[in-house]
């Protein structure tokens, strides 16, 4: 049993899980996303280098990864601080900050934000998708990767003594690359040693979450302490969704607030709207999976902030929860998604 057993590890240190309150399990407060820059449609190149303004706000919503300015959430610490103060007023308690190595995790800023707002922040250990892996990362053994991940939780991340409290989001593509497979195996080994929570970014294919689970399980990972993120854009067919939920991991709908006509990362996929997300959540609740559900916004670009006319970090508490209640999802199920399930997942074994 580790010293962290029965605790949740925030950027300010371990806390009693009872202190978490309403928790968003998949957000970013500071990161960069140049990695995912995507050229705009033909003849719209002039907009690539424009700052976000009122006149191009809707264009940025349609083309979030084509506006360079939009990819630098790390420039908005003051706006994020205001948002966190608002989140607290709206009844929020905790945010799991999923930025890992490859997209500019900044644990010092996370610590400062937590100190200045009183919101608990839990930082993520490990590595984002292969496209962000350095040459050095790709050449590492599973043992070396395991050592780095455990170190980020036990001793501190990025040369600081600020410790991560969850592994992930661990990035995977479709098909999963060799380097990502090693990181997944390292994740499972570190989880076995530490009894810690894990969160996965699956590739954009309905088989991707199944393949991730297979690799984690073969390496001894604990699915009951693992979250599969981004289910909104990954599994659409109901039978497939139930087949996946039966495996026992948490199932996370974490793109609330994302309205996107064209989903650049997979043009053949129609990104659902929030009403459709609520219908999927209701379906899983009705099928008996309310103990495995989690929800969040996955804010990762500037246009999602209220400063730029976006929904911000309080949208779920202020708008999605009331809508869920009018659509037959009980208060008890909502409390599980926002309080009970996050608390169970985030507590070290
Ligand atoms: C770092 C943020 C991130 O990976 N978000 C997921 C976007 S999507 O793959 O669901 O489109």
Automatic annotation (TrEMBL):
It comes from the Eukaryota. A divalent metal cation 1 binds at residues 26, 28, 169, 298. Pfam families: PTE. A divalent metal cation 2 binds at residues 169, 201, 230. Binds 2 divalent metal cations per subunit. Coiled coil: none annotated. The keyword Zinc does not apply. The keyword Transcription regulation does not apply. This is N-acetyltaurine hydrolase. The gene is PTER.
